[in-house]
From TrEMBL:
It comes from Dendrosporobacter quercicolus. GO terms for cellular component: cytosol; protein-containing complex. NCBIfam families: AhpF. One of its GO terms (biological process) is response to reactive oxygen species. This is Alkyl hydroperoxide reductase subunit F. Residues 209-495 form the FAD/NAD(P)-binding domain. NAD(+) binds at residues 349-363. CDD domains: AhpF_NTD_C (cd03026), AhpF_NTD_N (cd02974). FAD binds at residues 210-225, 469-479.
Amino acid sequence: MLLDRDIKEQLSQYLQLMEGDVLIKVSAGSDKVSGDMLALVDELASMSSRIAIEKAELPRTPSFSIRRAGEDQGITFAGIPLGHEFNSLVLALLQVSGRAPKAEQKIIDQIKALKGKYHFETYISLSCHICPEIVQALNLMSVLNPDVTHVMVDGAVFQEEVQAKDVMAVPVVYLNGEFFSSGRMSIEEILAKLGDGSDVSEFEEKEPFDILVVGGGPAGASAAIYAARKGIRTGIVAERFGGQVKDTLGIENFITVRYTEGPKLAASLEEHVKEYPVDVMKLQRGRRLEKKELIEVELENGAVLKSKAVILSTGARWRNIGVPGEAEFKNKGVAYCPHCDGPIFKGKRVAVIGGGNSGIEAAIDLAGIVEHVTVLEFMPELKADVVLQKRLFSLPNVTVLNNVQTKEITGTGKVDGLSYIDRSTEAVHHLELEGVFILIGLVPNTEWLEGAVERNRFGEIVVDNRGATNIPGVFAAGDCTNSPYKQIIIAMGSGANAALGAFEYLIRN
Ligand SMILES: Cc1cc2nc3c(=O)[nH]c(=O)nc-3n(C[C@H](O)[C@H](O)[C@H](O)COP(=O)(O)OP(=O)(O)OC[C@H]3O[C@@H](n4cnc5c(N)ncnc54)[C@H](O)[C@@H]3O)c2cc1C
């Protein structure tokens, strides 16, 4: 039995929500994955009279497509959508059966209005927690528009295909046979990339805000909610709603919630903000801030938003190491997310650059998948917690190199090695390997504020205990500030603090 009892119980409740009949066409061979796939679809059919199965020859084996009875196309899964893709399977069954998707009407209209033929293929790994977002977005698009088709391909099952396409990070999307995107993408981003972006005039016409929040992670979401609850005109500009939380797998320290996962918490953040009359402007980046009579924030699309007070909450991103080869081989062997991309390096040799907690956690995680892990730490000793180090040193396939400096990531077309300098002897060595994971900390997203607000030598915005910056009316919160600790609960607290500080400023001025 492929599904355990709990999952089966959950699934049978979901399947009761199906509104029409669906046909699952299955293309199976005699291999183990085909056998498991047949077992899965048989189990599905045994749980709902609305599901019928038919053997077929699809372009990939093993694969199956879920379609409405009588229609000749549907959502296809090449491989078995369990692991993080289980929800994608459930949603596909419900949506194909006719159940209305939970999407904004504006998005549904944009999808239906797409002209032309779009055949998407998404390469994923079942342990990739950021992959379901794009799989579900493209599945939804194919349910709503008959000119859009989508296949999810499990890279672990279709290894030859993955190697032929040099896919070394997931998710990677191909459109009509051509590379389309790699990495996380929301449905709005896909539509924008297909040429359905928003109109600049829509922004130019906006009345000034009382509080404008820039950044939609935990700090920004919390600031927007606290501001809106004061009954004042609130807006939030966010390049990616959810911020780093979207990149996080398990979260166990968000107090009162014993365990949750990043994408789920990110979706709840957005839902909570939308409970209030907040003007949410997604997929927009601030590129300039200037204090005039009001505070002006210029967006990358050229529009200028005005507000009486602004809260900056643009968070942080992975730090690059800045050696030759890093940019060139990004997603071609250079990776930043071990949870997502680890399985692609199954049986291969990888390096982890960075001996702090995130680097050592990654090395432990990867050691269970890959042939060998080499950890490179710049300082003479690892900086990670002792418990993590103990666990690391108990593993047979890990080598730790302390006091070394990465010089270059080498390769042709994709990574084939890494050169480093032994800092004690200055000798240069070369390691042959297929993957390099870079985990050397975070850098604040504040470059665009150069000269506009005071920042410290790390680029963090300097704030006082009310979240105020050196510019009257400009506040900041979360990981983009000089707050000593960077955590979700701290970012949320500081967002609330900055919103209350900004509200007090508005009353006094
Ligand atoms: C892999 C990983 C695991 C983690 N695990 C945990 C954990 O288990 N528990 C925990 O408490 N913390 C964890 N953290 C830390 C936590 O995610 C951060 O502290 C928190 O997300 C910071 O929130 P923030 O709102 O300040 O910034 P972010 O989450 O970084 O959000 C920044 C927001 O600003 C937007 N933005 C950036 N630049 C611009 C611009 N110019 N214009 C407009 N918008 C912009 C971004 O798109 C995003 O919406 C983890 C972080 C990572 C990377």
